[in-house]
Write a structure and sequence with these properties.
Structural class: mainly beta
Number of helices: 1
Number of strands: 26
Distance between the termini: 94 Å
Mean pLDDT: 86
Largest sheet: 11 strands, parallel
């Protein structure tokens, strides 16, 4: 007859320890056995007119066929085209788990499922969504990436008299704008000028920004909820002699710049007159208005009925 034997008795602590270890073995993801959360990326964070949106998803779970390239899909929307376009991404090679695809950005076409994403020239928000069927823990997960479309992006030098109109507002400044000496920039009531991070407006000629009480002109950061100093402010710097070169801000709102307005010279020449009337200069970094001196002279600055507040 076989010899009988019995298992050793385990303490409560030992039983609990074994149970915990068993749970960890089952729950902790394993690179060969468990699912892996996918990643979603775009080639840019800011897109301009005529560009294409390139999309990449990395998700080894979607590598279904070890002998051929697999594919998956993502959805893409904009503020103007809320009904999603479906974009098919194809695996870069067999068994890579990396999927790539693209969609053209269209400012002219009609809204609809046409294989292009409609965006508005005045500026738009692009949203790309990937639905991962199984993340690290085997649960479905929605992954979202966003980007900005700035069709009306401006930057560089203005060499001829120019008017920024309300009909073409907002104006998105992506690089520094320079109003050259002898040139007039006029801004109509109701215009919004939105600055990308680090960009600014440099006035070496004449600026005539005249709004109204019901249609003020706004100089503001492009990003919502921005901190003071997000953009580089308005720099009024005289470079040459001759001409009247007056500067006028009437019913303007200037916010979150660095500073709001800087007035100075790099040649000793000064603007004849700088008028700031019925305007608000708020939440700028350093100061609301700063005037640098040259050889103990300063420009004639007239400020009336204006609010200069919360600048630090």
């Amino acid at each position: 007859m076989g010899r009988a034997f019995s298992l050793p008795k385990l303490s409560l602590k030992a039983c609990l320890a074994i149970a915990i270890i068993a749970c960890l073995v089952l729950l902790i993801p394993n690179s060969t056995l468990a699912n892996v959360t996918g990643t979603l990326s775009l080639d840019k964070s800011i897109y301009r007119s005529g560009e294409t949106l390139y999309i990449q998803v990395t998700d080894i779970d979607e590598n279904k066929d070890s002998t051929a390239k697999d594919s998956l899909s993502v959805s893409v929307t904009s503020a103007i085209e809320s009904q999603a376009e479906t974009v098919t991404l194809t695996e870069t090679d067999v068994s890579t788990g990396v999927f790539q695809g693209s969609i053209a950005l269209d400012e002219q076409g009609s809204i609809g499922a046409d294989g292009k994403l409609q965006v508005t020239f005045a500026g738009d928000k692009i949203t790309v969504t990937y639905k991962d069927l199984a993340d690290d823990w085997g649960n479905p997960k929605t992954i979202v990436k966003t980007a900005d479309f700035v069709g009306k992006a401006i930057g560089g030098g203005i060499s001829t008299d120019t008017t920024w109109t309300e009909a073409n507002s907002p104006y998105i400044v992506t690089d520094d704008v320079f109003v050259n000496p002898g040139v007039l920039l006029s801004i109509e009531p109701g215009v919004e000028v939105k600055f990308m991070a680090g960009s600014g407006l440099f006035v070496h000629g004449t600026l005539n920004a005249v709004g109204t009480s019901s249609k003020p002109i706004r100089f503001a950061p492009y990003a919502e909820s921005s901190a003071p100093g997000y953009w580089d402010g308005i720099k009024i710097i005289r470079k040459t002699a001759g001409g009247d070169s007056n500067i006028t801000f009437e019913y303007c709102i200037i916010s979150e710049g660095s500073p709001g307005i800087l007035i100075g010279t790099d040649s000793g020449y000064l603007f004849k007159r700088i008028n700031i009337n019925n305007s608000s200069i708020l939440r700028n970094k350093g100061s609301g208005i700063s005037s640098s001196q040259y050889q103990s002279v300063s420009p004639a600055i007239y400020i009336t009925n204006s609010i200069i507040s919360q600048n630090d």
